[in-house]
Amino acid sequence: MIVGEQKSISEIKTIIAPYKRILIMGCGTCVKTCFAGGEDEVAVLASSLRLACKKDGKEIYIEEFTVERQCEDEFIQEGAPAITRNESVLSLACGAGVQALARRFVKTPVLPGVNTTFIGVLEKQGVFTEECAGCGDCKLAIFGGICPVTRCAKKLLNGPCGGSQNGKCEVNPETDCAWQMIIERLNILGQMENLRVYVPPKNWQTSLSGGPRKMVREDHMI
Amino acid sequence: MTKDFKPKITLFHCINAFGDADEFALDDKNTCEIHTVKMPCSSMVKDVFLLRAFEAGADGVIVMVCPEGQCRYLEGNIRAKKRVAWVQHLLDEIGLDGRRLFLDNMASGDIATVNQTMENVLKNLAVIGPNPAV
Predict the structure, then answer these.
(1) Cβ contact (<8 Å) for B48 and A9?
(2) Smallest CA–CA distance from A39 into chain B, residue
(3) Which of A66, A81, A149, A177 is the most exposed place for a label (fewest CB within 10 A)?
(4) Which of A9, A10, A55 sits opposite B133 (nearest CB)?
(5) Strands, E assignment, chain B
């Protein structure tokens, strides 16, 4: 899932300052799971902003609405009446959700309320970790399902650096060494011979370094 | 702050900590106005409910939970404690002052703790003053 973090109240107050009628729009998919932009977070933010504005003597009207998925037109449409009733939309979705709204509602300012952080997993309750860099050329089959591009601080593709201690990364001792995990996992899978496979230098053109990416599926186009 | 400031207090309490606020005669008409909200467990106290209490005009909000290790549902009071800390942080960020929100542990029927908490809360609110967002 995409992991995000809600912006601070002070930053959000600055962003919404020019507007008096605001719709806070949540997204019920990724950002809900990481407690940044689901229905509950929309309610808390709305309440916080109402209190903050009242304290500052600023008149404001805040409406709340959460769609199932903000990055798809089909779901966004449900929010159309609420969007047209307000001067601007404060989106609690990831950057894709904000831009999908902005594309669909050209004349309404769409403002970000969340910092999109990374693609990750829920490691344990309340802890999210980055697991995928979206590099566009996945080699997880060789690495036993553990990505050194994302999880090794040095992005090494052909074995460990030798600097890890007790299974922890020398760059950040709180991070598990990706290569230690890869080797342990390959051992469990009986695929230690994968370590002999030479992985050539990565072609980063498939990543964001090659500019914004586009995927076309002709078979699904109408 | 005016001398005749009579704080409005919303008290969220776990029914296992005490069944009914009235039995403690908490609402001292001369010093404060209390609105109580009973919960089957303090873990029901969500952040938005605490904020809405302030939106509804409360000058202070108290959350009364069972002592740690004695929650009927094992960790409800721990969850409540974490949520209260989170909302205190939000109140500070908003500029409302996190000290308006209090959490106290009390054993079932321990009226002395309730009275002590009320005394501390009223003392604090006398310093902080009324809710500026009303």
Answers:
(1) no
(2) B48
(3) A81
(4) A55
(5) 8-14, 33-39, 60-65, 101-105
In chain A, where are the structural domains located?
Answer: 2-118, 133-204
Look up residue B82 and give its two tokens. Answer: 């974490």
Partners of residue A119 on adjacent β-strands: A2, A132
CA–CA distance, A222 with B48 (Å, rounded to integer): 44
A132 touches chain B (CB under 8 A): no
Q: Is A55 on the interface with B (CB under 8 A)?
A: yes
Using CB atoms, pick whichever of B46, B47, B54 lies closest to residue A51.
B54
Please write the tens of the pLDDT for every residue from A84-129. 999 999 999 999 999 999 999 999 999 999 999 999 999 999 999 9
CATH of domain B8-127: 3.40.50
Using the 8-state DSSP alphabet, how is residue A78 labeled? G
pLDDT digits (tens, 9 = 90+) for B103-117: 999 888 788 888 888
Residue of A nearest to B49 (CA): A44
For domain A2-118, give the fold: Rossmann fold (3.40.50)
